[in-house]
Every structure is written in C-alpha cells, then in structure tokens.
User: Fold these one by one.
Assistant:
Number 1:
Amino acid sequence: MNIPADLLYTKDHEWVRIEGDIATVGITDFAQSELGDIVFVEIETYGQSLQREAVFGSVEAVKTVSDLYLPVSGEIVEVNEKINSNPELVNSDPYGEGWMIKVKLSDPSDRSGLLSASEYQQLIGA
C-alpha cells in the first residue's frame, strides 16, 4: 500500500498536498483499491467555495458510486481534465496523474484536522 509521507490524509480516504495557499486533492491508493476499476469521475464544483467536509464530487467504479469530501475549506480553482477522459488514472496513479482538484485555501488552520501518513496507516491497518 502506497502512503506517501509528504501528504496529509482524511478519514474519508482523500489525500492533500498543500503548497502555499493551494491544496491538491485526490483519493488514496487504499481508496482506489477498495473501489476497484474506476469508470467515471464527476466534479461539478469548479469555481465554488465550499466548506471542509462538503461533497465536491463523486467517483464511480464498476460496482459502486462514492462521494468525494473536501478535506479543506476553499475555492475549487482547478479540476484535473485528464481524469474526464481517462478515469483509470485514479487507479494507476492516484498520487500523480490521478489527482482530482486544486483548492485555494480559505482557512489554513484546516490542515490541523488532517492525518499524517503514519496516522493514516494506523487508520487503515496497513
């Protein structure tokens, strides 16, 4: 199970990379493996300002649909267009080409509620 030490995580299995006031968000390797083959990612919140833990989209796998929860409050300033035509990137490269959104942080203190890699490892029992 790949759990990069330089990222932060949520109990809902999203990962966050914070660089300045921009947070890149995706789902973890654990989440994509639990979901199975991802066939569609729907994100219709571009340009919206949302609070932490709001639903920002959904991911559809062969057998299920799962909501995506925003790990930090802010405005969604970019959506990864590559995953529209290639949703399998979320399976093959969840921490790279399979990222989902970029958020302009509105509350930098949100990061205090996120999990470190070792805390996330404990959560999933890895």
Note: The first strand starts at residue 8 and ends at 9.
Number 2:
Amino acid sequence: MADFVNLLKLCVGAEKVEDLIDWQQSQRGRWPDGLPRHVTRMWPKRETEIISGGSLYWVFKGMILARQRIDGLEEVVGADGITRCAILLDPEVIRTEGAPRRPFQGWRYLSAEEAPRDLPKGRVREEALPPALAQALAEIGLR
C-alpha cells in the first residue's frame, strides 16, 4: 500500500499531451520561479498524502494520458480577492498508459493502485484502445 495519493484532473481545452506542455511553457513568466502550477478553488483535505509522492494525472478527452509529480501546495489570492490552492507541479510531463475516465468537475483523488503505469521513456504515445474496450478491461482488472 502506497503512502501517498494522487489527484486526477480533466485537462480542459487540451486535446493531446502536447497542448498541455505548450500551455505550461507559455505560462512560465506568470510565476516567480517559472514552474508550472494548476490553480484550483478547493484545498485538498489529504494534503500530507499528496505531497508525500503524489502526482496530478491529466485526463484528455476521456483518457488519462499523462501525469506530473506534485511538488507542493501553495495558497494564492486571485485578483478577485478569493484564496485558492495552487498545485505546484514538476515541469516534466510523464506520459502514461491510456486509461478511460468519465467526465467530472474539479479534481478527484486517485490511489496509487488505480493509477495507470508510466510509458517507457522515449515512447511518446501508446495507441489507445477504444474507450469501451479499455473500460471493460479495467473492470476485470486488466489494463
């Protein structure tokens, strides 16, 4: 059993992993250290488990395809005066096996046991199975 938990988030506005990478590159000047962040309304209650080795897994068009290690959580106040949670991310985007996920709002916790495996280094994609087949395999414990 892992001592950490991951977060799962829809990558809204992105159709592929390259879109996320490009967007994060374009936002580098927004933060003093130039490192990527994802700002969200809610602060995770399981903060200690998340920063103990968790990653943010990104869902693109119904499939988990990538993750980024979470380096910390930081309070940020928006121009509207509302306090939010910035999820501090490692700049390396790690591609994962495709795993189907239905749409949801916000973020969800994802246990290490449920998380898809990383693709081998240098392999930028894996041909995704049709979503119905991938879901059926996941339901019987095969990925």
Note: The two ends are 19 Å apart (CA to CA).
Number 3:
Amino acid sequence: MTLFFKFDFNAICQIVLEQILNDNSIKYKSVGFGEIEVLEKLSKEKQDQLQNALANYQIDIVENQKSILVQKIKDTIIDMVFNEDVVVNVKSSVYLAETLEHSYGYLSNLFSEVTYTSIENFIILQKIEFAKQLIIKQEFSLTEIAFRLNYSSVAHLSTQFKNTTGITPSAFQRIIAKRRALIQQNKTD
C-alpha cells in the first residue's frame, strides 16, 4: 500500500522543536521560525543532550554568526515560498533586505560565500519543490500554481521546472497520475 502525504514543513519543524525542548525540560520562548530564546542557563550536559536529541531529526544548533544569518535567509525564503499567509508584493531581494534588515548585496554575497550557490538558485529550488507538492495535491491548475509562486506565466514556471528537474510540469503531472492509477489498480487486484 502506498500513502501520499500533505504536510506543512514549517509546522512540523516547530512541533518537533517544541517537543524536544519540552522533553528536555528546557524553558524557552519562540522568537520566530527556527529561532528560540532559551530562558535559562543550560549546563554543558543539558546542551549536549539537546544537541543529540535534535540530531535525531537532522536539526543543528547554529552558533557561527554568518551561519546564523544564512539560516535566517533560508528560513525567510522557505516561509516566503511555502507559507500561504505570507504575500510578497515586492521583489524577493527587497523582501529579504527589509525582513532581515541588511542590504541585499550583503545578504547575497554572504549566502554565496557560505553555501556556494546564489540566493536566486535557492529560491528557484524552493519554488520548484513547492510546485511539485502542489501538483501532487492535484488541487490547482498549472496556471494557479504559477500565479501562487509569482511566476509571470506558466511558460516561465515550466522553463524553471524543466531546468531544475529535467522534466516539464505536465510530464510530472502525468507521472503522478500514472503512479496513482497503478496504485489504484493494485488495490483492486
């Protein structure tokens, strides 16, 4: 049996983080996505326990200032792309600069220095990942998906989708439809 899942990445991360902090009896205040303020002094032993518990979920505590800002850039981009409540009516460069209170040039250079890729490429990867999720859900047309992701047209979405995945969104839709048909057929056999 194959099951398909629909999930909110941000909500899952927040729930996992809160569960780990509560399980380790750590008093905290949530500051923002991927950022918490610990309201007590943690012993080295408690810090190690927290680090180990987080590692089980591939979550790391970021300590270097450059890495912290790069993580904030990533979190802001992910929130901008995946969160339906965030409506961005300006260029992503302006949104990032205003949200993170740094010039876009500085953010862009830092991001490239630390990750060896550009902010633009990271945004495209996130948009294509979200487009794949939306296609799998089958709730929206390609036109609606392109609009939701701030593409100027379906053709623009299709070009970036193909450049990133190697196939067009339409081909991806057909693959998903065939998989569902096979699963349905296997259920009836």
Note: The first helix runs from residue 9 to 23.
